[in-house]
Amino acid sequence: MFQLRDRLTNLAPDLFRVVKPQAQVYNLDGIPLINARVYPTERIDYLFLKRAFDLSASTLLLIVLAPLLLLIALVVKWSSAGPVFFRQERVGLNGRKFWIYKFRTMEMVSRHISDTRWTTPQDERITRAGKFLRRTSLDELPQLLNVFRGDMSLVGPRPERPHFVEIFKREIPDYMVRHYMKCGITGWAQVNGWRGDTSIRKRIEYDLYYMQHWALWFDLKIILLTLTRGLYHRNAY
């Protein structure tokens, strides 16, 4: 909306599209400042509770699942030539890059191919054991080490490869907002079916919803949904 007055134009911006109900107001020497977006990472309960939960849960799971991890490692080693573990660079909290760990499910290829190419349903690179591990998400279990180290959380947006981050941040509004929260092994988008070869825009929509509504009970709900319907998924290949 605008009106003309002495040849000057006054603009009335629609701040309600920018300023959310949970926005914080600060005072800087008498000047009111509005923090239009409040992220969970700015809250004490997120900083303390989420890290405490991740650290204790990852430690317990690594101990309890040790026999299963050993068994999977032997199967991977038996199924094809190459290392047991696969590591790949991903983008995490605040855009920081880190190495993510998985059980190797593919034949050995150049790093450029693995870093820039999507996995397809009939991908010839996938090993016999790898098909089962990927379908059941058991190949993701080594990421408990990433959680223990603090690179990741049990629950959060899935970390992406740098190559695709550069593409998505130019094509999808608010894509980089997801990096204000620590990435996770599972997440709200994943348990709702947005994984694999599915819409990136819908995935981001669910990631942003999770960020805006984070609570410890929400993490517990997502973990429960992961165990009941998220481990075996038709889009995981």
Describe this structure in words.
The chain is an alpha+beta fold. It has one domain. 42% of the residues lie in helices and 16% in strands. The protein has 9 helices and 8 strands. A two-stranded antiparallel sheet has the order 1-2. α1 crosses α5. The longest helix has 21 residues. The protein is globular. 25% of the residues are buried. The model has no long low-confidence stretch (mean pLDDT 81).
Defining traits:
single chain, 237 residues, alpha+beta, two-stranded antiparallel sheet, two-stranded antiparallel ribbon, 9 helices, 42% helix, globular
Brief sketch in words of this structure:
The protein has 237 residues and is an alpha+beta fold. It contains nine helices and eight strands.
Q: Strand order, main sheet: write it out.
A: 1-2
Rg to the nearest angstrom? 21 Å
The percent range for strand residues is 15-25%
Q: So what's the overall shape?
A: globular
Poorly predicted spans: none
Structural class: alpha+beta
Specify the helix fraction band: 40-55%
Averaged pLDDT: 81
Q: How many strand elements?
A: 8
Can you summarize the main beta sheet?
A: 2 strands, antiparallel
Number of domains: 1
SS field, number of helical segments: 9
Topology:
Layout: E1 2-5, E2 8-11, E3 24-28, E4 31-35, H1 44-64, H2 66-79, E5 85-91, E6 97-103, H3 111-116, H4 128-136, H5 143-149, E7 153-155, H6 162-171, E8 184-186, H7 188-191, H8 200-212, H9 216-230
Parallel strand pairs: 7-8
Antiparallel strand pairs: 1-2, 3-4, 5-6
